[in-house]
Predict the 3D structure of the following.
Amino acid sequence: MKSPLDYRYLPACLLLMVLFSGCASQPLPPPQSQELQANARLWNWQAQGRLAIKDGEERHSANLDWQQQGFSYQLMIFGPMGQGTARLDGQPFRVTLATSDGQTLEASSPEELIRQGLGWEFPLSNLIYWVRGLPAPGQHLLVDSRNLIQGNWEIEWRRFSQVDGYSLPSLLIARHGDFELRLAINSWQLHPATQEKESQ
């Protein structure tokens, strides 16, 4: 009587199982550039996650709560360099930073203010676009759907999430020489007014 399992085919079966299991564990492919164009309409949102900054041998991390309303924004940074909370409020041509030690600083650009108050290189004016998977206005080189070169920065979008029909980055890495900034977003919230897509 013939055995119900023909062992001659066992190696082939095992190979197929390995191939299928490998495919299931692969990350989803990044969205195409045209899919990300819809993100340019998103100007009212909240993103929560974690920052990791490496500057040469120095490393810092902090939790981040970012609220964007048009061209105005508020960033709550919890635990920068092990120190309390910092709050950054910005609107065109006026940015203030309040730190946990009672200091309030003001400047015309967020980059200058964050460098002065926290000692970080933090290209916020461009990050407002990069965090949505878009190049900032100005010259840039879009290498592919995951990589962008703009100014002196190399941007890598490593992971994306689907949020209310939009593909939004969930892990962004920005490098400038020996400086590296990682922004991992674990929660996106789009305000209702931004979820209405334009009629085609």
